[in-house]
Amino acid sequence: MPELPEVAAIADYVRGAAVGTTIRRVDVAALSVLKTYSPGPADLVGAEVTDSERIGKYFVLRARTAAGESVAMVVHLSRAGWLRWSAKLPSTPLRPGGKSPIALRVHVGPPGQGFDLTEAGTQKRLAVWIVRDPAEVEMLASLGPDALAVSRDEFAAILAASRSQLKTVLRDQRVIAGIGNAYSDEILHTARLSPFASAKGLNAEAVTRLYEAMRSELDDAVARSVGQHVATLKAEKRSGMAVHGRTGSPCPVCGDTVREVSLYDRSFQYCPTCQTGGKILADRRMSRLLK
Ligand SMILES: [Zn+2]
Question: Catalytic one among 174, 200, 238, 266?
């Protein structure tokens, strides 16, 4: 799932390739991704791209129509969505309703180029809004402060007001925007805090440690990701992880075995020695199997 660093890199790449060029065509293969009707994809055609940016985990392409009106495409890549830039897009139209992972194609940038929004798997959650102003998208309007913009004191106030565990707080976009399952694992590992620790129970020193871990993990990941070709981003994200997705591997800090907790349809990882004083957290899936 693309999080703040990957979406920042995607926005950066598209900015370099598309700003100042005209949207030549928009093909929609999966109508279900479109969450708005008017303006529609046809309103983007002929518009000049003015900016490409990241808001939380959302990718936003801003353009201006020939009539001088603002129009924006807001994209939530969700869990299995991706943006794939192509130096040579096929000119044949996309076939709607096919089995292809391509949901929407935008011909933009230098002639022949553009990008596909793709989604793997059967759970279709990729979402695209076409709006005059991104603030019209309710999910964007309800985002908490950005993880890279929030101050240490604002962050402390957010934690103090929360009734949730740290893992939940970090991933809640309405509380703090940009972090998902992978980077929350990494941030908690760097801060040496349990994912199940109570947010409001942290002392001032632990709040500072968590804040600094959040900034350094995200800054480092953005620095590694921005400038990469979109195609290599997923591998870059995986290679930078200390605990996330590394169940059974040694922790790079202390050598203990990275453990996993499974909840519902997702799992997360942590290091017992670094984060929970050696305690192995109950894994619902495992306990069910052992019964
Ligand atoms: Zn460790």
Answer: 266
